[in-house]
Write a structure and sequence with these properties.
Layout (H helix, E strand, L loop, with lengths): L5 H13 L2 H8 L3 H15 L4 E3 L4 E3 L1 H29 L3 E7 L1 H18 L3 E7 L13 E2 L26 H7 L24 E5 L5 E5 L4
Parallel strand pairs: 3-4, 3-5
Antiparallel strand pairs: 1-2, 6-7
């Protein structure tokens, strides 16, 4: 069994409601010729005349009057289906897995996640709070926030902002071990390192003139 020509049925309804092929063509953003062919195609399929045509007037035939309500329902159902599909496509749904550093995630990201989920109730956020490095692909993460210089990879990365780093020492430490006068002297001191850094203990610095220096600072 052949499927109904839904386009022709919808065009038939538009012509009946607008009262002319020209008005229906404008309403459907189609050419008048295409509208006329669609109606003729439907008449051939049904084996009956749907309109009485004269040079001045277009009117429904008896068969057209009995079928026009069916045509209107087909057109309205089609338009409703398209609208529902568009609404579904615009509705964000699913689970998003993100990896975020612990302290930064709790302080800065968690409030934003709560606001995002309120705006998009169809989204579930699975937030992994850890300072450990993760394998985004093998561990199934959709994205990660990192405060670091990232190695080259095929993953797409976007810098959100720069972070100012500080080297600090307590007055007691400086009193007992001396205050370094130049970054190169840091190698003679002891420091508390961040274990999850790419190279713990290797500090990279850039001077006011753009010169770069790397110093390996022993761990306490």
């Amino acid at each position: 069994m052949r499927l109904p020509d839904f386009e022709a049925w919808a065009v038939f309804a538009a012509v009946a409601d607008s009262g002319s092929f020209t008005a229906a063509a404008d309403a459907l953003s189609l050419s008048k010729a295409k509208v006329s062919k669609a109606v003729s195609r439907l008449e051939a399929e049904l084996g009956t005349v749907l309109f009485h045509r004269t040079s001045r007037r277009l009117s429904l035939s008896a068969a057209g009057r009995s079928l026009v309500d069916h045509a209107r329902r087909i057109r309205l159902d089609g338009e409703a289906a398209v609208e529902a599909a568009r609404d579904e496509a615009s509705l964000l749904t699913g689970t998003v897995r993100i990896a975020v550093p612990m302290s930064f995630g709790l302080r800065a990201v968690a409030p934003l996640v709560a606001r995002f989920m309120a705006m998009h109730p169809g989204i579930i956020i699975d937030m992994h709070l850890s300072d450990a490095r993760v394998d985004l692909v093998n561990e199934g993460f959709d994205l990660a926030l990192r405060i670091a210089v990232l190695p080259d990879s095929s993953l797409r990365a976007i810098r959100l902002r720069s972070v100012q780093m500080y080297m600090i020492a307590s007055p007691d430490y400086c009193a007992r071990h001396g205050t370094p006068r130049h970054p190169g002297e840091l190698g003679e001191h002891r420091a508390v390192h961040y274990a999850n850094a790419a190279q713990p203990g290797l500090w990279s610095m850039t001077g006011p003139d753009g010169s770069k220096l790397q110093v390996r600072v022993p761990r306490r």
